[in-house]
Amino acid sequence: METFHPKLILCPTDFSEPATLALHYGKLFADCFNGRMVVLYADSFSPPPYFTSGQIEDLAKEIGRFKGAARKHLTRYVREQIGGSSEVEMAVAENQTVPAILLTAEEKKVDMIVMGTHGRSGFNRLMLGSITEKVLHETDRPVLTIREKKNFKKLSKDSIQQVLCPINYTEVALQALEHAVAISKCFGAELLVLHVIESRSSDVNEEVEHGRLCAWISDDIRSRCSLKEIVRRGDAAEQIIDAASSGGCDMIVMGAQHKAFHDTTVLGTTTVRVTRHAPCPVLTVIRK
């Protein structure tokens, strides 16, 4: 299986705090994997509905100036946050945000998307930021989602010391494990491989499942990083989130399968719940 090595990382931004934090994570990964970054700002520059045709024509003439100003602001913002570098490309798209992200990811063949998601409180916390959720449903690139952190400290290579990878013995789980191994190796982190027994039947023995998990992980994988196997019983999403919290994990890497639903695609319930409520960034490795 091909090893995860993100050489080109896309970081969409709206200049918000979550997007700024995501920008720092993008730089962290670019530095670790010796990769490059594309920082994208998208704006449709659309006129309001009450504009007359004459005003729309005047606005069209100004769009070039608006885009130029946006690029200058983007360049200044990136320089202030992560410093200037020839390894960072600035992109301003005249498009709505989600199509701009998907199109840029496809055209530039990026290896990874890193984006912030706005936190919600109360009932709305059940939802991810709409932009992030739409991208997760539409892309086939790995997506690292970053939720806003209070008292954010500058990131360094030591910021990722514990990586959690939940698995269920599927092909996409193996793909996610390969990503988790590459990340753990790059950052010198410990990898926790978790299997959750969702069956309530006493016939499913935790000790036996632990042996199965150990046997499932190849010697090649073990040789590339420090690894520990964990078996828990209960609801998958709840156990993953609790394991990440109690273990002080700095990142979760998990596989997700796009499933057809009428004329769109959906992600599995466990993936959605973990991404919404995880206490740390989540890299979703997507398989269509």
List the helices and strands and how they pair.
Layout lengths: L7 E5 L4 H16 L3 E7 L10 H30 L5 E6 L3 H11 L4 E6 L12 H9 L4 E5 L14 E5 L4 H17 L2 E8 L8 H11 L2 H4 L3 E8 L2 H11 L4 E7 L1 E3 L2 E3 L2 H9 L4 E6 L1
Parallel strand pairs: 1-2, 1-4, 2-3, 4-5, 6-7, 6-9, 7-8, 9-12
Antiparallel strand pairs: 5-12, 10-11
Helix pairs in contact: 3-4, 8-9
Keywords:
288 residues; alpha/beta; Rossmann fold; ten-stranded mixed sheet; two-stranded antiparallel ribbon; 41% helix; 24% strand; elongated
Total beta strands: 12
Mean pLDDT: 86
Order of strands side by side in the largest beta sheet? 3-2-1-4-5-12-9-6-7-8
CATH superfamily of the largest domain: HUPs
User: For the terminal residues, how far apart are their CA atoms?
Assistant: 16 Å
CATH topology of the largest domain: Rossmann fold
- The helical percent reads 40-55%
Fold and architecture overview:
The chain is α/β, with parallel strands linked by helices. The protein has two domains: 8-147, HUPs (Rossmann fold); 160-287, 3-Layer(aba) Sandwich (Rossmann fold). Helices cover 41% and strands 24% of the residues. It is built from nine helices and twelve strands. Strands 3-2-1-4-5-12-9-6-7-8 form a ten-stranded mixed β-sheet, sandwiched between helices. α8 packs parallel to α9. The longest helix has 30 residues, at 53-82. The two termini are 16 Å apart. 37% of the residues are buried. Residues 119-128 have low confidence and may be disordered.
